[in-house]
Structure formats: structure tokens, C-alpha cells
Specification:
314 residues; mainly alpha; MetI-like fold; 11 helices; 0% strand
Length: 314
């Protein structure tokens, strides 16, 4: 006879072959990703740090590499901030429609459509920005220039092409929309039902319930979603390269595209100049890529940290 106490084992004590294989593949994939990230960082450091000693022609005619990188970094941050101003309220509104307002069938279809936006290549967004957004926004830009031109942000002249920093920010906002929407709608849907029902039982309207029960629960996740969307906007290349012309200048003007009056971004500048660069100029461009890599990594890490911290707190 066998001893029941030795025969009976916890369910989790026996490992199936499939579980072992999956665990190994998952671990190997994680290691490959970490190694790839480390390889990219090592390459950027090895190729970009020599540019710190460059000046004059080695830094595209600037006194040092920081004078060259600073305006590009400013343009990158400016375009990304515009994108977040556009995308954040729109994404939160769409996420609320999907999770709390729309009928289930319509909400599911709308969620699929928003997710499909993430699959559109950036070059298509750039072409859409040139042919549709830029041209159709010219009357709006003219109105802003006429009535708010005394503010440096909206000073003219407005180009007839409409290819301005504002257009680039609008396109980036649409590109960041799927990421922010997807994360927000999942977080909104996870709000405890008892909290929502309790607010409604106390006489709150649906909006009051969302404001008092959903937003406090989802606040950390919303911040994380916005930061991850910002990371997407910071690193975008082709869409901005198609909309903006390369220009190394610090300018808050959003509605002009005259030479020396409109900023550009790091990614767009690399894409437009790397093919013609050689020698020390390649090092200068790679150094700007290193700066962008550090900033994007920091933003994405912060977003993940905020999300993990919210999960840990429950």
C-alpha cells in the first residue's frame, strides 16, 4: 500500500514540460531585450562621446556639441509637449467613452479602431500631416496670428504650406493617442464596481461618479499612460522629418516656418542629415541620438515605475 501523504502533492509542485519551455523562452527573450538595449547604449556611448571634443566644422560649425544639440533638444521637447496637450484630453475622453458611456458593441469596435492607429507607419502619418493637417490648419493659424499674434507663440508670418511646429505637434499627438487611450481604458475598466455603485447610490451623476471614484483610482495609471505616450512622441522620426525643415534654433514660435525661426527635433535632424554626414559629423549626430536615447529611456522608465508603484499599492 502507498502512503496517501506521500502520493498527494500540491498542484504547483509538479512542473509540466510546456511550462518549463515557456518559462525558458520568456527568460531568454527578456535577456535578449536587455542585451539589445545594452548594445545600443554601448554603441551610442562609443560613437557619440568623441563628439564632446569637437568644435567648428566637427560640430556643424558650432562652438561645441552642446550648442549644436541644445536647440534640437528644445525642439524635441516643444513638439512633444504640444503632442501631449493635444493627445491627453482626447485620449482620456475616448477611454471614458469606451469604458463607461458607449454601448458594449460600439465601444468594442471603437477600441479596435483606436488600437489600429498604432499599426499605421509613421511615414503615412507624415504624409497625412503634409497633405491634410497642414493645409487645412492654415486658416486656423491665420486666425491665431491675427488675434493672438502679440503672443510670441502665435506670431507670423504663417506659411501657405502650413508645415509648422504646431502641425508637427498635432501629428505627434495623433500618433501618441492609441498608447494613452489603451492604457487609460484598461485602468478605468478595473475600477472596483462597488466604488462606482456606491457613488451612484448616493445620488451622484455618472460624471460625478467618474470624477469621485474612477479618476482617484486611476490617477497613477493615467500619469503612466501620459509618460509612455510622451516617450513615443519624443522618439518619432519620419513624421516630423516630413513636416518640418531642419533648423538649429531655439524658437517658441509655433506658426512660422521661415529659416531660422522654427525649431526642429533631434530625430528629424538625424534622419535628414545622416545620409550626407561623414567623419566627425557622424559622431555629432550620434551624440544627439545618445541624448535622445537617455531622455526617452528616462521618460519610459518613469512611466513604468509609476505604474508598478500603483500596482504595488493596490
Amino acid at each position: 500500500m502507498t502512503d496517501p501523504e506521500t502520493d498527494l502533492q500540491p498542484i504547483g509542485s509538479t512542473s509540466r514540460a510546456g511550462d518549463t519551455i515557456f518559462r525558458g523562452l520568456a527568460t531568454a527573450s527578456a535577456v535578449v531585450i536587455v542585451l539589445a538595449l545594452a548594445g545600443v547604449a554601448a554603441f551610442l556611448l562609443a560613437q557619440g562621446l568623441p563628439a564632446l571634443d569637437g568644435a567648428g566644422a566637427r560640430s556643424y560649425g558650432y562652438d561645441n556639441i552642446w550648442v549644436y544639440t541644445g536647440p534640437l533638444l528644445f525642439g524635441t521637447l516643444l513638439a512633444s509637449v504640444i503632442a501631449m496637450i493635444v493627445a491627453t484630453p482626447l485620449a482620456i475622453g475616448v477611454a471614458l467613452i469606451i469604458s463607461h458611456y458607449a454601448p458594449r458593441r460600439f465601444a468594442k469596435g471603437l477600441g479596435w479602431l483606436i488600437d489600429l492607429l498604432a499599426a499605421i507607419p509613421s511615414v503615412i502619418f507624415g504624409m497625412w500631416g503634409i497633405e491634410f493637417v497642414a493645409r487645412n490648419m492654415v486658416p486656423v493659424y491665420n486666425w491665431l496670428n491675427d488675434y493672438l499674434g502679440f503672443i510670441p507663440l502665435f506670431a507670423g508670418p504663417v506659411p501657405t504650406s502650413g508645415r509648422t511646429m504646431m502641425t508637427a505637434g498635432l501629428v505627434l499627438g495623433v500618433m501618441a493617442l492609441p498608447i494613452i487611450t489603451a492604457i487609460c481604458r484598461e485602468i478605468f475598466a478595473q475600477t472596483p464596481v462597488m466604488h462606482q455603485e456606491a457613488a451612484l447610490a448616493l445620488g451622484a451623476t455618472r460624471w460625478e461618479m467618474i470624477r469621485l471614484a474612477v479618476f482617484p483610482y486611476a490617477s497613477s495609471g493615467m500619469v503612466s499612460a501620459i509618460l509612455l505616450g510622451l516617450g513615443r512622441a519624443l522618439g518619432e522620426t519620419m513624421a516630423v522629418a516630413l513636416v518640418l525643415s531642419p533648423s538649429i534654433v531655439v524658437s517658441f514660435n509655433l506658426l512660422t516656418a521661415e529659416s531660422g525661426s522654427s525649431s526642429s527635433t533631434i530625430a528629424a535632424n538625424i534622419a535628414l542629415n545622416f545620409g550626407n554626414a561623414s567623419g566627425s559629423k557622424v559622431d555629432a549626430l550620434i551624440f544627439t541620438g545618445l541624448v535622445l536615447f537617455v531622455i526617452t529611456f528616462a521618460v519610459n522608465f518613469l512611466g513604468r515605475w509609476v505604474a508598478a508603484r500603483a500596482v504595488k499599492k493596490g
